[in-house]
Amino acid sequence: MLAPIAWRTPPEHYGPWEQVASTLTEGLVRQGVEVTLFATADSLTSAHLDSVAPHGYAEDPTMDGRVWEALHMARAMERSHEFDLVHSHLDWLPLALEAQWRAPLVTTVHGFSGPAILPAYERAGSALVSISDADRAPSLHYAATIGHGLDTDAFPAGPGGDVLLSFGRIHPDKGTADAIDIAERAGRRLLIAGIVQDEDYFDELVRPRIDDDRVVYLGAVGAAERPGVLGAAAMLLHPIHFDEPFGLAVIESMLCGTPVLAYRRGAMPEVVDDGVTGLLVDPHDGIAQAAATVAKAAALDRTLVRRRARERFSVERMVESYLDLYRDLRDAAHRRAPGE
Amino acid sequence: MLAPIAWRTPPEHYGPWEQVASTLTEGLVRQGVEVTLFATADSLTSAHLDSVAPHGYAEDPTMDGRVWEALHMARAMERSHEFDLVHSHLDWLPLALEAQWRAPLVTTVHGFSGPAILPAYERAGSALVSISDADRAPSLHYAATIGHGLDTDAFPAGPGGDVLLSFGRIHPDKGTADAIDIAERAGRRLLIAGIVQDEDYFDELVRPRIDDDRVVYLGAVGAAERPGVLGAAAMLLHPIHFDEPFGLAVIESMLCGTPVLAYRRGAMPEVVDDGVTGLLVDPHDGIAQAAATVAKAAALDRTLVRRRARERFSVERMVESYLDLYRDLRDAAHRRAPGE
């Protein structure tokens, strides 16, 4: 299991790719699969851990992420003959060097930074996994779509409440400023949680509106406090301004029983069961639409939200889907080389 | 021979790494060495050419340089078992993946973008070649210093003239604005040639002083016109603001008989024979010092400048130095594996 090394695996705060690599690794180990996790040296895992990078490069300005990522990948590559399969969460670099791997490669495509990286994917023989159908690039062939799962027991049912919640990195993509407008129009208080990823956006459009009463900024919320914050909200506002490939915070919220009010774009129609676990509104004139929908979203049955989310987004379901894919690849390899 | 792919090999205008890869390749072929050049598909060579990238990524905003560089390197890596030796001009990526090469690796270190890339070099077993002693990183072990050479016949003796010349990418590092000040104080006309690499610097400190009389900007000067421009100048002004690792324009100028007036830093003391092929001045208060030295530099004997430069910077001398290194590595490999 080749995790990214921007952050520790699992991450302490932000780090969705590392989070998925961790959740899958631990789930596979529980199923009796022997896994070696390539991640930062400070990572926590019940699998075998192998590391080159001492800690995440996103936490250390003296580390060049490109250099450490290459060294990290090279380490896994050198050992790849030891494994039945290599599962990469590392973006395009392992694909560009695919002929060097000594085991079949599975790549979970967590997101595309842009069309310019497609040449690495188009040439690759790796089995590609999309994390939603919405995130598929039309020019690529995928082996499967496997949505993320989470340790559902880590997200207990929350009591709900009156306050609305914006949860995720603070960036124009995530629409934090839209969430403030929606809450204001709906006459509700708003809590904001997440790392500041775009300082200018935060300074211009978010910080001036924080008054510690109607709009409260909690800062980054770590793994331990996350379920409490999510579970105590009336709903998660998710007015995204990009085609989000999945949305881990969305499923975390639903697992706690907190419904989601999101703009209908990216993977939201796949992740949110419209009318059951949340409500989707058109992004055009989204603020007015969303504000008008707040009362209806608050009336969704939290027990049903939670039940549906636990059915769809458990780690066991994700692990089983990946195991099916691994078996298919093994069987296909055996058919190609029957003598081995 | 693994050339960079920012530009064609050889480059049409700027591209010193590609230029050196080209010069060395053609020189080796003339010595009877069989060379496969990995470079952009539009490259020109008498060696075997192999390519992934259609053209240089620096000329095409739709190409992601990191992706194409990885694909390009991967191609050479896949074929590396065919070669006695792989000579890389590609910066740190081939070093980070060194265990994947199936032939001994020689790396010419054309320059460090910063200390953060050192981890890739420190772990590498590649024979490292510095292009000047000044450019050596103290923490690394080098196999040799081999300065660049050029096809000396491509740079015929020029007549000289009254005008001063600033030649190179327009960027604070290269001190284009200093050159304007030096020429003005010395009461001389100045020609500026080179690509604009830093638009802000050009717009603020260079463009306002271009008057098409005392200060003339020629734009980028291609390979064909270069010797004419260099040879018709009284001297090359090279008031650098960084520790330049070599300085190809400096040797091109000297080969044409045109002396160099440079700041004493980086590789300049190694490349310029102070008092013979040029004059070096202290970078502190460099403009005044340099302006006061213009007359003395103009009085240097152009025939001696040219003679010394041809002795020191011929392609034959560079090729012989690299062949010596290749032979040493082959002999060392044979000593380690006498049975093969």
From TrEMBL, chains A, B:
Stretch forming the signal peptide: none
Record Pfam families: Glyco_transf_4, Glycos_transf_1
InterPro entries: Glyco_trans_1 (IPR001296), Glyco_trans_4-like_N (IPR028098)
Glycosyltransferase in keyword set: yes
Species, as recorded: Microbacterium pumilum
Glycosyltransferase subfamily 4-like N-terminal domain: residues covered: 18-119
Domain Glycosyl transferase family per the UniProt entry, residue ranges: 161-298
Keywords attached to this entry: Glycosyltransferase, Transferase
Name of the protein in its database record: Glycosyltransferase family 4 protein
Lineage: Bacteria, Bacillati, Actinomycetota, Actinomycetes, Micrococcales
PANTHER family on file: BLL5217 PROTEIN (PTHR12526:SF595), GLYCOSYLTRANSFERASE (PTHR12526)
Domain of life where this protein originates: Bacteria
